[in-house]
Amino acid sequence: MSEIPHKSIAAQTYNACWDLLEQSRTSAEDLTLIQLAYTSRYHWLQVGGPQEWAISDWMVSRVCAAIGHAGLAIAHADAAHGHDQQGFPAWLIASLHEGTARACFAAGDTQRCDAAIAAARDWLAKETDAADAAYIQQQLDDIVILRSARM
Question: Is 30 exposed, middle or buried (0-12, 13-18, 19+ CB in 10 A)?
């Protein structure tokens, strides 16, 4: 029996999530998107550590928020914060807060959304890599734009 290439499958399905997230999707593609996110998460749980586990929960949260499953989005955003964050770079902790903000936005919880955005910005202020900080800031800006459009 051959060994399962967990890391390869985890990375491939994570990247496939991004590809689908960045395009208009049909309802069938939404189902594929959630299947990919959970597949990636499963395989990272087999071979990763706290950082990969947090990122995989973040991705499931993002996917759930994108397809309208706010409850699952919040559950996975909370789970992403539940992993041991010792040694995480500031951009990653900021990203986890961005995920919480996005999930809360999907759920209509503007107070928690705003608090998560503020926490993400606090962590971004500690990030020394300008490119990493800018990428996460762009994601935060997307949420702020979506909120403005909803009002």
Answer: middle
C-beta of residue 85 within 8 angstroms of C-beta of residue 50 = yes
Domains of the chain (ranges; CATH) run 6-150 (1.25.40)
Alpha-carbon distance 71 to 107, whole Å?
7
Residues 6+ apart with CB under 8 A from 81: 54, 96, 100
DSSP per-residue letters across 18-63: HHHHTS---HHHHHHHHHHHHHHHHHHHHH--HHHHHHHHHHHHHH
| Lookup result for tokens 């955003």 | 77
Is pTM, for the whole model, over 0.90? Answer: yes
Contacts of 124 (CB under 8 A, 6+ apart): 90, 91, 94, 133, 136, 137, 140
Q: What is the pLDDT of residues 89-102, one digit of tens each?
A: 999 999 999 999 99
Residue pointed to by tokens 């959304």: 113
Q: Please check whether residue 70 is in contact with residue 107, taking contact to mean a CB–CB distance below 8 angstroms.
A: yes
**Averaged confidence pLDDT in the chain:** 96
Q: Which 3 state secondary structure label does DSSP give 89? A: coil
